[in-house]
Write a structure and sequence with these properties.
Layout (H helix, E strand, L loop, with lengths): L7 H11 L13 E6 L3 H4 L3 H5 L1 H11 L5 E7 L6 H7 L1 H8 L7 H4 L11 E5 L12 H7 L4 E7 L1 H14 L3 E10 L3 H14 L2 E3 L1 H9 L5
Parallel strand pairs: 1-2, 1-4, 2-3, 4-5, 5-6
Length: about 220
């Protein structure tokens, strides 16, 4: 697991501004979605951090489903080849990323240790962000379910997960990035994103905190 941390100065900054460390100290499970990004063999098999977050993703899904929430599995789609992508990555690497999500039915493309259920949502994205307009059906599907809070998990922290957190915030959603249910290649990359998200886009909480929020009794 990543050795994650938020700079104490960032905690102090928000505590001075709003009088509390975390923006979202309650959530309504029925209006909450666990968004699991890019947990496919291409990204998980060679990354011990990505393999390490599988139990935490499972615990969050296992708590949110019976509480009436949504579990959404977001997989890489295969966009059209573009000259810009080939110029940026080189043709061979661009094609690897373009086809990284695999083929066949979406549930079968996930990392096999994940406990996906038929009642969950399964979507593809053709941009780094699952919330970029026109590149993934997820925002419309969540809006249709009345979702106002998203729990961002998956891999890699500093690319598709961060992009999704930023765009979800821009759409007006309450964003909680689950610190120990996201994975990057190195601690430094992981923590840079956590500090950016906490500072400007949403809360950053460990799995244990989020489980407590899901399981908290509703307010009187």
């Amino acid at each position: 697991m990543h050795d994650w941390r938020i700079d104490p100065r960032e905690y102090a900054r928000h505590e001075a501004r709003r009088g509390r460390r975390f923006a979202f100290d309650r959530l309504a499970p029925s209006r909450t979605a666990l968004v699991v990004i890019d947990m496919v063999p291409f990204f998980v098999s060679g990354n011990r951090y990505a393999r390490g977050i599988v139990p935490n993703i499972g615990a969050l899904a296992g708590a949110l489903r019976p509480a009436g929430g949504t579990v959404a599995w977001v997989l890489p789609g295969a966009p059209e080849r573009t000259p810009v992508a080939e110029e940026f990555y080189g043709p061979a690497t661009a094609e690897l990323y373009r086809t990284s999500g695999g083929t066949g039915p979406l549930p079968g493309r996930l990392w096999p240790d994940l406990d996906a259920r038929p009642s969950d949502l399964f979507v593809e994205k053709t941009a780094p962000s699952a919330f970029f307009p026109g590149r993934c059906p997820l925002p419309d599907l969540l809006e249709g379910r009345g979702v106002d809070t998203v729990l961002i998990t998956g891999t890699v922290t500093n690319v598709c997960c961060e992009s999704s957190a930023r765009d979800a915030s821009a759409l007006g959603l309450r964003v909680i990035m689950v610190a120990d249910a996201n994975a990057a290649r190195r601690d430094a990359e992981h923590n840079a994103t956590l500090n950016t998200v906490y500072r400007s886009f949403g809360d950053v909480r460990p799995t244990s905190d989020v489980l407590a929020l899901i399981n908290a009794p509703p307010p009187p």
